[in-house]
Structure to design on (165 residues):
């Protein structure tokens, strides 16, 4: 019986090998693996292309906005430089005006003090000359005791010239 079992086992193996079909989806087939890998690569490429399209549109918008910002920044830097130059010019003009004004004021004050001192000395000299030229008459008063008899009269004041009398 053992022999019979052995024979049956071999026969079944031969029939199984002869009749056996290759499965439709073999797990270890080289071509199947490469096919799946290629499908995965193609799917990834499609996903990457769609993502790239989705990224390119905002990227173009961002780049154009960035270029506009750079242009505006350059314009603003130019304006700031011009304003700084204008400010420096205005400060120098203001300093020159203040210094010339202070010079004019100091010259005017010195001229006024000089003229005032000259006027004071001239007035003093003229005052001295006038004092020398002035002759004050001296009058002497003498008092004497006279005895007069006074007569008293009452006058009646009437008329328009009452206040003068």
């Amino acid at each position: 019986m053992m022999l019979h079992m052995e024979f049956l086992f071999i026969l079944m193996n031969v029939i199984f090998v002869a009749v056996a079909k290759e499965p439709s989806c073999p797990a270890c087939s080289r071509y199947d693996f490469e096919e799946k890998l290629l499908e995965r690569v193609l799917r990834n490429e499609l996903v990457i292309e769609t993502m790239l399209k989705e990224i390119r549109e905002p990227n173009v918008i961002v780049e154009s906005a960035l270029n506009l910002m750079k242009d505006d920044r350059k314009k603003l830097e130019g304006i700031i430089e011009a304003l700084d130059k204008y400010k420096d010019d205005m400060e120098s003009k203001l300093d020159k005006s203040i210094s010339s004004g202070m010079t004019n004021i100091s010259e005017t004050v010195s001229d006024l003090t000089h003229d005032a001192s000259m006027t004071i000395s001239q007035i003093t000299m003229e005052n001295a000359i006038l004092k020398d030229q002035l002759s004050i008459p001296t009058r002497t008063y003498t008092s004497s005791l006279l005895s007069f008899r006074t007569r008293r009269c009452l006058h009646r004041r009437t008329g328009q010239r009452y206040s003068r009398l």
Summary: The chain has a mean pLDDT of 82. Helices lie at 2-19, 30-133. The longest helix spans residues 30-133.
